[in-house]
Amino acid sequence: LGPGDDAAIIAARSGRQLVTIDSIVEGAHFNLAWGTPEQLGERALAINLSDIAAMGGAPSACVINLGIRPGLEVRFFERMYSGLAAAARRTGVDVVGGNVTKASELTITIALFGDAPRTPLRRDAARSGDRIYVTGTLGDAALGWRIAAGKIPARGLVRKYLVDRYLAPEPRLKAGSRLARIAPTPAAIDISDGLMQDLGHVLERSGAGAEIDARTIPVSSAYRVLMGDDLALALGGGEDYELLFCMRPGRSDRDLARMLGVRVTNIGAIIRKPARGPRVHIHGGGRMPEFSGWDHLRVSRS
């Protein structure tokens, strides 16, 4: 049973379920002038889908809470839900209910359910000797946010590519599902708050340290045009929604890319937790980040 009653009724399925919830708030996470209502709806669901991908799961159903501020017309929400529905259809998600309330800023909160694989990907499975990999390229979304906000100038195809990477993240559902079939099961997390911060979550849960080669951090040609060798946003920018995973050595980047259906880059290795000092040692060139990632309680970004 879907929307219209006091609760949705979801048919029981074999195995375990995954549950995740995320909110995006106008002024903190998005600005309505930067994209279309359809893009906003798709993005709201995509960031939840990325959490399911990071566990190796398959999304199934969601409920949505809207905090609505004055000044928004019905047509805006029709378009926003059109984008959200398109993303739901592509990924097999049923929108089964929700809630609406008045708010001072537009807020979209989605609780998403998914089916867990036999052995879910987890943050606590990294072991000394594992290689550290990331999918796709890093820093594009953080750079796109700054371009849209008028903090960094850009024009033409470079601007469009980077802003689109912020507005339309691609959750790596297929890659996560395929990673969960590898034995021993890799450790994994999605890169939502920045590479260094999210890698730190894996290391903390796994009781380990890491060595990263900055020269291997994958960045796009558009990123290079604006940032050159400055890796600050690639290491600490956030909102890439790529996957970071740690697994035993033996497979090349090319083999993993073919297996997962997305670009894969080995950026370092898991080591034993250092007795003192930082958990992560970064080698190679480039300017290091002056901030460690997205802080959900900070008023604005740097």
Could you explain the architecture of this structure?
With 302 residues, this protein is an alpha+beta fold. It has nine helices and ten strands. It has helices at 37-54, 74-91, 140-148, 156-167, 173-179, 195-206, 221-227, 232-236, 253-260, and strands at 17-25, 58-68, 94-102, 107-115, 131-135, 187-191, 208-213, 242-247, 264-272, 280-283. The strands form two sheets. The chain has a six-stranded mixed β-sheet with strand order 6-8-5-9-7-10, sandwiched between helices. Strands 1-4-2-3 form a four-stranded mixed β-sheet, covered by helices on one side. Helix 1 (37-54) runs parallel beside helix 2 (74-91) and helix 1 runs parallel beside helix 5 (173-179). 41% of the residues are buried. Mean pLDDT is 92; it is low at 293-302.
Shape by Cα distribution:
globular
Strand content: 15-25%
Work out the helix count: 9
Tell me which oligomeric state these chains represent: single chain
Strand order of the largest sheet: 6-8-5-9-7-10
Which bin fits the share of residues in helices? Answer: 25-40%
How confident overall, as mean pLDDT?
92
Structural class: alpha+beta
Instruction: Please tell me how large the radius of gyration is.
Output: 19 Å
- SSE pattern: EHEHEEEHHHEHEHHEHEE
Distance linking N and C termini:
45 Å
The total strand number stands at: 10
Instruction: Point out poorly predicted stretches.
Output: 293-302
Sheet of most strands: 6 strands, mixed
Which helices and strands occur, and which strands form pairs?
Elements: E1 17-25, H1 37-54, E2 58-68, H2 74-91, E3 94-102, E4 107-115, E5 131-135, H3 140-148, H4 156-167, H5 173-179, E6 187-191, H6 195-206, E7 208-213, H7 221-227, H8 232-236, E8 242-247, H9 253-260, E9 264-272, E10 280-283
Helix pairs in contact: 1-2, 1-5, 3-4
